[in-house]
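Hey all, quick one. A colleague (J.T.) asked me to put the flavin-adenine dinucleotide job into the tracker so the inputs and the structure tokens live in one place instead of scattered across chat threads. No bug as far as I know, just bookkeeping. Sequence used:
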Amino acid sequence: MARSYNIFVMVKQVPDQGSKAGINPDGTIDRARAKRMLNPFDRYALQAALHVKKKYGGIVTAISMGPPPAVEILLEALEHGVDRGFLLSDRRLAASDTLATAYALFKVINYVGKFDFIFCGLQTTDGDTAQVGPQLAERLGLPQVTYCEDFSIENEKLHARRIIEGGFQKVVVEPPVLVTVANSYHPLEYKSFAGTYRVQQLQRNPEELGKFIKTIDLDLVGADIERCGLKGSPTIVAATEKVGEIGGSCAIHQGHSPEELVQELMKSSNISDYLVAS
Amino acid sequence: MSEEAAEIDVSQYCPKGDVLVVAEHILGELQPVTLELLGAGRLLSDKMEKSLIAIVMGHELGDMPQKLIEYGADKVYVADHPELKVYRTLPYRRVLCDFLESLAVPPHTCLLGSTTTGRDLAPRIAAHFDTGLTADCTELDIGPYEHKSKVDPTKIGLYPNCLYAIRPSFGESLKARILGPWKNPQMATTRPGVMIPLKADANRKGEIVKLKVKFKDEDYRLIVADTVREVSKGVKLTEADVIISGGYGLGSKEGFNLLYELAKCFPNSAVGASRKVVDLGWIPYQHQVGQTGKTVRPKLYIACGISGAIQHRVGMSKSGLILAINKDADAPIFKFAHHGIVGDVYQVLPELIKQFKAVQSGKEVEAVVSAH
Ligand SMILES: Cc1cc2nc3c(=O)[nH]c(=O)nc-3n(C[C@H](O)[C@H](O)[C@H](O)COP(=O)(O)OP(=O)(O)OC[C@H]3O[C@@H](n4cnc5c(N)ncnc54)[C@H](O)[C@@H]3O)c2cc1C
Ligand SMILES: Nc1ncnc2c1ncn2[C@@H]1O[C@H](COP(=O)(O)O)[C@@H](O)[C@H]1O
């Protein structure tokens, strides 16, 4: 018998690093000009949330914190089959580190209500810390399953397989639980035509759309402003330095026969030096 | 920074705590990253003239506490309890939080490895104590910092001893120095294979302190039903000068035969692999390179049919020369390889082997000439 799980999925909009737009010469990102996308790791979290809904029954709520354009990823989530979305958007959140982010998201979750599962991505491509999930679990006093790469629900318990050094672990836990989903979990399924059509219709009718996607602020969720944004962040980025090591320095050989490709490689690199014992 | 500027009393922000390393072990062996952290932690604590302390949690720990001393710790706290036998977030979190709360002065710095365990535990501790945590550091240092920004006046001041947590950011194109001197412990996790361990010294003296541990019912909510690990042995990946690695692009287990053949062209070479093919059972875990495999630094790394996911990259990006062979010109591996061949491994590898062999038998000139 289908049970109605309350499933939350935490999603973040990040700059698209594959696109050159908005990348400053010093390597920093101009967020206003950068192309934006759904954090690639959160696609796995979304898939996990939708899987629970499809297989076991429930309602999926996507939650995000970010500037107003982040509503785009909530629309995208809706197209994929998410039922509703909340965007916490507030100027006072600027310069939040992971601790302040986790605090703000914790307040949003308390505001939104009861849940059985919270799915997070493993990490973001801009923050890249994998910290927000466990920090959120700590605030909520929840058990957590990080690096989850597969799971099922049996007798109301989550049976999950998680990655560890040198192997894997099978764990069993009763919800509520927070899960961070690894990128070795199943990729996000394509959106359905029905989903895309529905969102197109909704976008024509802002009032109707507002029933499904709500933008909220810190006052509404009752957050302590001292714990948000720069003030609530115990860390700051004191300096950045460009490192040349990565990006654009690869000599790429292509478009020839394998024979010629290898010859090019042999000529332009010192690879043959390694062929003899030194 | 001038001496006079140090007038402001910042002792309240930088209490004179020690440097703490949270040890990690698998199947009775301390993890290399723990020894690396002791090496890095020793430098930090010496710079501040403080002690280096370590905590090890587990069950039946054998000579691990002693080993921690040999590798640099002045004092080792031991939490030994059957419930700690296998790592689980909540029991470990309980012990570590209770331990930190029991100290009269919190440690100045608290370090963990960026392993699946360290990255699971560290954020919980940081959130519990509302302190800063920097993930995946590649460098650590202690130094002064003057905070001038007026956005939060309570933070203005000169901080003489701050943890400099340095890490790559924005897809590794930038290095960021992250600080949080306002609260202790200042926390960081570091990437395995980056910091340098000290040489073990059996004559080093240190103190071992047993901790009393106590759990609450809620710590048992999650049950570990099974832990499957393969201990690495046999394959000398970390010592090889040349590593030929294969990924999902090889298409099958048999593809590795080609890699072994290529490896034969090089003295002191070994065959590596991505996690995906290890998971598929094409090759044993001992060959895995990456975040949850080995960190390697050979002179030459040849990646065959590997996309270059971040978790693979962190294990091999320090290699001297990286050659990638991949049929997709947009594969991420081409962003950090030094040389790339866009092509099918099954066409490129036989050709590579052929020409390498030709070089070795002195026919190099002939081969190059005949092409034009
Ligand atoms: C917590 C965690 C830890 C992890 N730890 C590790 C780790 O330690 N090491 C690791 O490697 N991964 C690790 N991973 C997995 C990692 O994210 C990637 O999934 C994995 O590295 C991908 O392996 P791959 O490159 O072989 O496969 P894919 O990503 O599928 O790439 C295959 C590549 O082969 C190319 N290709 C296909 N056919 C051919 C052909 N005929 N000729 C040439 N090229 C071809 C394709 O273009 C593609 O780029 C970890 C993941 C997580 C979540
Ligand atoms: N601003 C945000 N809004 C919603 N979820 C977030 C946000 N930041 C982080 N997360 C979640 O936490 C995960 C880990 O992020 P990070 O710690 O930044 O690497 C992400 O994959 C998201 O699921």
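Adding what we noticed when we looked at it: The mean pLDDT of chain B is 90. Residues 32-48 of chain B form the longest helix (17 residues).
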